[in-house]
Amino acid sequence: MSEVKIKRRIFPDFVLGFSSLTSKGPSGWMVILGLIIVLALVIMTAIGPWATPYDPIKSNVGPIRAPPSPQFPMGTNHLGQDMLSRTLVGGSIMLQVSALSVLVCFFIGVPLGLFSSYVGGFFDGALSLVIDAVYAFPGLVIAIAVAAVLGPGVVNMALSIAVVYVPSYFRIVRSQVLSIKELAYTEAARATGAKWYTIISRYIFPNVIPSIVVVITVNFADAVLTAAGLTFIGLGVTYDIPDWSWDLTNGWKYLSSRAWWIISFPGLMIILLALGFTLIGEGMSELLNPKLQR
Amino acid sequence: MIKLPLLEIDSLAVDYQTGRGRVRAVDDVSFRLEKGETLGLAGESGSGKSTLGLSIMRLVPYPGVIANGHIKIDETDIIKLPEHEMRSIRGGKVGYIFQDPMTSLNPVKKIGAHFVELIRTHEPTTSEKEALERAKTVLKNLGILPERINDYPHQFSGGMRQRIMIGLAIALNPSLVIADEPTTALDVIVQEKILELLESLRKIYGMALILISHDLSIILERCDRIIVMYAGHMAEYTTGAELHRAPKHPYTERLLRSIPNIELSDQKLSAIPGSPPNMLNPPEGCRFWPRCPYVMEICRLKVPPLIAAEPSHLVRCFLYGEKGAKIE
Questions:
Q1: Which pTM does this prediction carry?
Q2: A4 vs B116: CB contact, 8 Å cut-off?
Q3: What is the complex's ipTM, to 2 decimals?
């Protein structure tokens, strides 16, 4: 008889299989389009430093506020910096911040949600109350408040975004666990003598993953916009790091003098990045929701 | 030679503490189960039969508590057992088969992983490969191709999933298997096959079986002894043959009469009038009296004791006096 092997996989097949995405109709294509956009921007930012025609932070590489031309395809800004070079590398901070915030949220929100709702009782009630209180605030306001206290920097930005998003993870995980822990297979696991942490990690957690995947992508999209917002009001990174949102901060004043190119290209990048993540998120939530599947 | 009982339950009572008061779901239940024996637990929904089954695993769901009595498995009282020892009994010494095979398997884990998880929980030294080999043997006994160990639960039909559940319950060779309505979610033909499989496995592995069902006809054919539950009480406790031949409790009598008989061409099915009591507020006295055709004055006042109408025939009814003769 052939050797039987068990492959340990957490994701169901259709999350990993690209070819199966195309067979899932519009939502599959949404995910693919989103992935293409996000990957393109990530690759662009990753190879950007080697591909820039000019030094992105060097002033006066060209004339001041020059409109797009063959020499400066995206024009130059008020310091005479090349906008193409700045656009190519300007996503780095935003990507780092959003990735870091997603990691922080995931490792705080998910275990907290799993544990709290599995244990239940007073602990769960008290924690939910606190988390719901945070959730009730408008996200950007908390993020600004926390960022203002922590000060600028990539890690601090990520933390202030994480504060906003931990409640989302917690709530999604908690509600899922509440229903999963009543299902027969957790009961059956208990009847086979499984320990509580085995039940959480092997039986409940893998079944929560589809919902978490959706929150992660939505979190990414929002983190991008929040990071842009924080940098825009000066709570982000220092001015010597090229960043799309810095270009917005500095460039919007010149819109009245018809220098549209200074904010248009970085702004477009931010929109594209957020759009890519949103497409992935929306597509995923439709793919992973069994009620929407035919 | 004194045979030691595998399972001994003594005046067990299980309460559910609900917002509207305390519900005694199982009240004053006592019985013994020998090794290799089959016991049927019959009763309608809410009669406490599942609660009784779960309390043997000490898995009565919140807010249920075991309020009174003893449950001894191999002479060990499990009610006082610490949780980690209880875990080794669950799945190890006592296997449990749940009612709904469609949701009783973890949808994101392969069948093999279920077995590996179970075997390695109880025997941590077993390698994954060894556990898989054992799982394949079990699957073969269940009539499932061993290659299918790499399939996910959704790739199996309901009957096959229930067979896998049975496999998981017997994989560690328990001395007792509790099957809680194992065939309710299945159609009649599959039901028959599952019950046959359970019976043959019981013989192969030499385990005792508690078969819980609302369907008295399933239990009658297969069980050495039968407990008929009504509203948390044991209404009747006797051998299968005896129960079939001469049911004593009015409830059992009525219940048996409501099973359709294929040999009678002209028959009216008789239903039991009324409905089961509200357990928040059970009737005073015998719990069956509002529906009983033989109701007497005393029935409304006192809970009848379990009377030995015959040496191996216990019945909770005032119709049978001290000597077991039916009082007319």
A1: 0.75
A2: no
A3: 0.71
